[in-house]
Design goal:
The protein contains nine helices and no strands. With 218 residues, the chain is an all-alpha fold. 75% of the residues lie in helices and 0% in strands. The two termini are 15 Å apart. α1 runs antiparallel to α6 and α3 packs across α6.
Length: 218
Amino acid sequence: MIPNFFSARLRVFIAVAAFVAWSAVLLQFVLSLQLAVANGKGVVGGIVIFFGYFTILTNILVALALSAPLIAPNSALGRFFGRPGVATMVAAAITVVCLAYFFLLRNVWDPEGWQFVADAALHYVTPALFLLYWWFAVPKDELRWVDLPKWTVYPVAYLVYALVRGALTGLYPYHFIDVNVIGYGAALANAVGIMIGFSVVAALLVAVSRFQPPKPAN
């Protein structure tokens, strides 16, 4: 839920952040479909490729985590994404998106024009906005170390999905889990590395939250 202190300012910020997140996802969706059609893969092929990326799925989670508690706080979706643990899991995931792109993917290609805009928004702007949201709007009192294993369900589920999907279609979204190129051994080792990285980021968020000063009384 969104705390009451500075609620007007927070609501404006969250609305802007949600707009940026949804706009980035929508822009990338349009660009992906255009590229798929141009390459002869069609609209359906473009949709399949689009929803194969951890970056896209996580940015969608960010957009939902920002907009659902703001627009419909009493709905099932609003209550779910309003949970501090869920928000922290999303914060860890979008941080991994940012770090993985910066260290592993940014030199793989050179986007231009609108693709550069979408790329920057998905990998840098949205992560920064969501971390600010997490710091200023998400209550930290309920965060517990024992919840860390539960938060890994999302990245583990994605990696299983990506590997199974790749085995069925031959399409792997990232080179570091592309079994066709590096084999299952290296792909699984890289997946384990990603999981370790996610766990470290999530643990750091919990640790950092302990240093957040108390909120002013209403």
